[in-house]
Specification:
heterodimer; A: alpha/beta; TIM Barrel; 8-stranded parallel beta barrel; 9 helices; 16 strands; B: Elongation Factor Tu (Ef-tu), domain 3; Rossmann fold; 2 domains; 7-stranded mixed sheet; 18 strands
């Protein structure tokens, strides 16, 4: 007989069945995954980035594998706001996990447009503000590395988000991530999401030029996990613990052990990203693994473990 | 829900039944699926593919590696690798799937160490394969080097399931050793009349072309195809061309097909991470509408087989878009 373990979490006013999310850009708009896993096992779900107008994305090659990781430079390819509302939103209506829409743009106005238009949609619990995409020429990361711009865009989008939760996704491509984290929290972010990918490059030594058409891409996967855990811990201790703002932690999570590390570091919830590409059912397995871990450690609730590593 | 998922596609355990070095640089891996995996793969169509998880497969010992391979020692892999099938055989409650591969990087190098009874996980079958429109009487199948597997698979299906269609394969490569077929192609030709045994066993006729003339037609396989079309009268509407190979070859096949007003399907190749339409890595530029606009489709989900008319081919050597 299994003892009762509570793995639900409070996340910026939302009660989630468990702390496991799938990260933006690694789970499509949910319908793509339906053949391989049950999305309803998750606590939260973050859509592929949505921009005001459709985007084709970058030329190929868009990805390259590295040791224990991969680089991607997709370039925010997406169907655009109107088609998202028309085609994808109805499917998300029936989804059990809290749905966050990842919002991207080139100007603050574009971010505001997308957020405003979706702010009254019932299917959506909140927004993830993408100010950390390293693979587009305009917008994206340029908003995310300067604390002044982080503040400005966070307040503008917060005002457009109405009653919905606003989570800000931070870039790790900064000297001190606590600085941008603090800027987002001071500007009204309800939650922080970290980390996005690390800007990186792989060179083809036969052709003597970068493999990716975009030259650079964002490094993700197990290669970045220890740095991501460190950054979550730093932001937790220096910013969010006191401000009582939850962190969605992620970077290279493959299994429940990896997920637990992030929770012990200070994350209230965790996001599985790259590993969805390798095992589309892994997030669902992580939910069970977290429960098993709590039981093994005699924790009656996962909440006791948040930030427990100090 | 689980039941419908299992019979169409999914992540299954496959048992290795053979892994054979078939020629200088090519290997053939034979996998067997059971239960739901057998049901799913029994439905696999030519041109579809599967994602093989080779991350748990060992590299060969360092002393077995050649000079070019030594830098691969210790090189970790995380992503699965997409492979199409050269033969699928469903018998009783088991399905056998043959995969042809060439050692190119850390994953295919790992594949060489797989031996009978080893297990790997395989996600599939994925993507859209070749389709066979009504009313076709002649199918011209064009292979460029490692483009052979799905075309071989298609040839076997045509010969077994479409008695009214005459299939003819044109197989090309830079040189004789780059043709991914078992056996000595010149000897077999004397025995059974058609040079490629893997096709002849299904009664499928084939012609070989090499750029250096080391065997068969001296010149690119597309020239061989073109010459055949000039010499043989076929009704365009009753003919179809299927092709798999390097993108510049596919572009030329598409050009020939369009000139002769013959339907043509091409199997495209792109770097993939997930294979199921979520990572958006494998973009293929396609024509969208008549106004010269284009859109990206996904090789894994919308393809890998596309109608040749919709694809904009990117020729790496020249930078041209055709």
């Amino acid at each position: 007989m299994k003892s009762n373990v509570d793995i639900s979490v409070e996340f910026a006013g939302l009660r989630l069945a468990n702390p496991v999310f799938t990260a933006s850009g690694t789970c499509g708009y949910a319908d793509e995954l339906a053949e391989f896993t049950d999305v309803n096992d998750l606590g939260g779900f973050i859509t592929k980035s949505i921009t005001a107008k459709p985007r084709m994305g970058n030329p190929v090659p868009r990805i390259v594998e590295t040791d224990s990781g991969m680089l991607n430079a997709i370039g925010l390819a997406n169907i655009g706001l109107d088609k998202f509302i028309e085609e994808k939103l109805p499917l998300l209506q029936k989804t059990k996990p809290a749905v966050f829409v990842n919002v991207a743009g080139e100007t603050i106005e574009q971010y505001v447009t997308v957020t405003e238009k979706l702010s009254s949609e019932q299917a959506i619990a909140g927004f993830e503000l993408n100010i950390s995409c390293p693979n587009v020429k305009k917008g994206g990361i340029t908003f995310g590395i300067d604390p002044v711009q982080v503040k400005e865009i966070t307040s503008a989008v917060k005002a457009a988000a109405g009653q919905k939760v606003l989570m800000v996704k931070l870039s790790p491509n900064v000297t001190d991530i606590s600085v941008t984290a603090r800027a987002a929290v001071e500007a009204g972010a309800d939650a922080l999401s970290l980390v996005n990918t690390f800007t990186a490059m792989v060179i083809d030594i036969e052709k003597q030029r970068p493999v990716l058409a975009n030259r650079t891409g964002g490094l993700s996967g197990p290669a970045i996990k220890p740095i991501a855990v460190y950054m979550v811990n730093k932001v937790y201790n220096e910013v969010t613990k006191e401000a009582k703002v939850p962190i969605l932690g992620g970077g290279g999570i493959r299994n429940a052990s990896d997920a637990i590390e992030f929770i012990l570091a200070g994350a209230t919830a965790i996001a599985v990203g790259t590993w969805n590409f390798i095992n589309p059912d892994c997030a669902s397995k992580i939910v069970n693994g977290i429960e098993d871990y709590c039981r093994r450690k005699g924790a009656s609730s996962i909440k006791q473990l948040i930030g427990a590593a100090g | 829900m689980a039941e419908t998922r299992a019979t169409t596609k999914g992540d299954f355990t496959a048992v290795v039944t053979a892994n054979k070095h078939i020629s200088s640089c090519f290997y053939k891996l034979s996998l067997q699926f059971f239960q739901q995996g057998a049901q799913a793969f029994a439905q696999a169509r030519p041109g579809q593919f599967a994602q093989l998880d080779l991350s748990g497969t060992a590299l060969p010992p360092a002393e077995e590696l050649n000079e070019q391979q030594t830098d691969l020692i210790g090189r970790g892999i995380i992503l699965r690798r997409p492979y199409s099938f050269c033969e699928v055989t469903a018998k009783d409650d088991k399905t056998s799937v043959d995969i042809l591969y060439r050692v190119l990087g850390p994953a295919s190098l790992r594949m060489t160490t797989l031996k009978s009874a080893d297990k790997i996980t395989v996600l599939g079958p994925l993507g859209n394969g070749f389709s066979i429109p009504q009313g076709k009487k002649t199918a011209l199948l064009v292979i460029g080097g490692m483009g052979a597997p799905p075309i071989q698979h298609l040839a076997s299906v045509l010969s077994q399931e479409h008695a009214n269609i005459y299939p003819l394969v044109f197989a090309g490569a830079k040189t004789k050793t780059q043709l991914p077929f078992e056996g000595r192609l010149d000897e077999v030709s004397k025995e059974i009349g058609f040079p490629i045994h893997a096709l002849a066993k299904f009664g499928v006729e084939s012609q070989i072309a090499t750029d250096d003339g080391s065997i068969g037609f001296h010149g690119p396989v597309t020239q061989c195809l073109s010459q055949w079309l000039d010499e043989n009268e076929v009704m365009a509407e009753e003919t179809i061309i299927y092709a798999c190979g390097p993108e510049d070859m596919l572009a030329e096949v598409a050009r020939i097909a369009s000139e002769k007003k013959i339907d043509c399907q091409v199997s495209m190749e792109r770097r993939m991470a997930c294979g199921i339409g979520i990572c958006q890595s494998c973009a293929v530029e396609c024509r969208a509408g008549d106004g010269g606009q284009t859109e990206y489709k996904l090789c894994c989900k919308d393809g890998p087989v596309f109608d040749a008319r919709e694809v904009i081919f990117h020729i790496e050597k020249t930078g041209h878009r055709l």
